[in-house]
Write a structure and sequence with these properties.
Elements (H helix, E strand, L loop, with lengths): L2 E7 L12 E7 L7 E10 L3 H5 L20 E8 L9 E4 L6 E5 L4 E2 L16 H13 L7 E4 L5 H12 L4 E6 L2 H9 L5 E4 L5 H8 L4 E6 L3 H10 E9 L19 H5 L3 E4 L9 H13 L7 E5 L4 H9 L6 E5 L1
Parallel strand pairs: 8-9, 8-11, 9-10, 11-12, 12-13, 14-15
Antiparallel strand pairs: 1-2, 3-4, 3-6, 3-15, 4-5, 5-7
Length: 333
């Protein structure tokens, strides 16, 4: 059996993680036992939620254990199988990322077809991030045709898809915020947003008011903080907020102030709901069919930022937190 390299969390970060919080460890790969498959990972995912799992705090997912291999989404090739229905050469999506080889319970993996879509897309546009966008906008955000939609972090893997799904479903106007002029250009020219702005160029509330003079009906929040306050101020009567992520405060060491205009929630009968994609897997078949169709027809565009090599996994993750990715951040092994 081949040797494998895997990333361990060796210290819990305080504030921004540093490379010293992680270690790349070489291990022996075991033979698959009954019901198991041995997978050679081809692509692994890094995602913002992983920052939360580095804290030893009660949350919706158990914290990463120190000095143990970290987990995350991965797509790989089966190289040995002791599980019915899985054979060497099959490609599978599973959750034992951050490593080169993984022994996986076959029940915790799903076969994917590289002939229908590139394998990397099962970690992004057709994977968990895509379903997050789909469920968050349509179910949690209660989107309906004619709504005006604002998306923060709109050039990220989830945000870019939210805006495009809204357009494909008949939004009256889609506005996005991003952290660079280059990303703003991408949102308008490639993703088809009606308006976009660089949140570093001025107060979010002012830029949003200019981009959405008639207000907004749905806000898809990936950022929190100043963006959330601006959206509350711009939402029309019975507006909805779907809280997907709060990346602005993931590395904060002090409590971050909340929006100062919560009275608007009362006045305009707004609804704010946080959500986790795991609560919406019943939408998966519908999502793959609808979004897969849009991707094949070229109606829905996606970007991937690909970093090469397991040894660069941590750098890819830190780059993601710094906003250096456009679209889904993926490590190719």
């Amino acid at each position: 059996m081949p040797k494998s390299r895997e990333w361990h969390l060796v210290a819990r970060p305080h504030g921004w993680p540093t490379p010293e919080d992680f270690a790349l460890v070489e291990t022996e790969t075991g033979e698959p036992g009954p019901g198991e498959i041995l997978v050679r990972n081809l692509y692994v995912s890094v995602d913002p939620y992983m920052r939360g799992r580095m804290n030893d705090a009660k949350s919706y997912a158990a914290p990463y254990e120190l000095n143990q291999p970290m987990q995350g989404g991965a797509v790989g090739e089966v190289i040995a199988s002791a599980a019915e229905g899985f054979a060497p050469g099959d490609h599978v999506l599973h959750f034992a990322g951050w490593r080169e080889y993984a022994l996986v319970n076959a029940k915790a993996s799903v076969k994917v077809d590289g002939s229908l879509a590139p394998l990397s897309t099962y970690l992004g546009v057709l994977g968990m991030t895509g379903l997050t966008a789909y469920a968050g906008l349509l179910r949690v955000g209660g989107f309906k045709e004619g709504d005006a939609v604002f998306v923060s972090g709109a050039a990220g893997a989830v945000g870019g898809q939210v805006g495009q799904i809204a357009k494909l479903k008949g939004a009256s106007r889609v506005i996005g915020s991003a952290g660079s002029d280059e990303k703003v250009k991408l949102l308008i020219e490639e993703y088809g947003f009606d308006a976009a702005f660089n949140y570093k160029n001025g107060p979010v509330a002012e830029q949003l008011a200019q981009a959405a003079p008639d207000g907004i009906d749905v806000y898809f929040d990936n950022v929190g903080g100043e963006h959330l306050e601006a959206a509350i101020g711009a939402l029309n009567l019975r507006g909805r907020i779907a809280i997907c992520g709060l990346i602005a405060q993931y590395n904060a060491t002090e409590p971050t102030p909340g929006p100062h205009n919560m009275v608007k929630v009362l006045q305009n009968r707004l609804r704010i709901e946080g959500f986790l994609v795991g609560d919406h897997y019943d939408l998966q078949p519908q999502f793959v069919q609808e979004v897969g169709g849009w991707v094949r027809e070229g109606k829905l565009h996606y970007r991937e930022t690909v970093v090469e090599g397991i040894e660069n996994n941590v750098e890819a993750f830190l780059g993601l937190l710094r906003g250096e990715n456009t679209g889904k951040m993926i490590v190719k092994l």
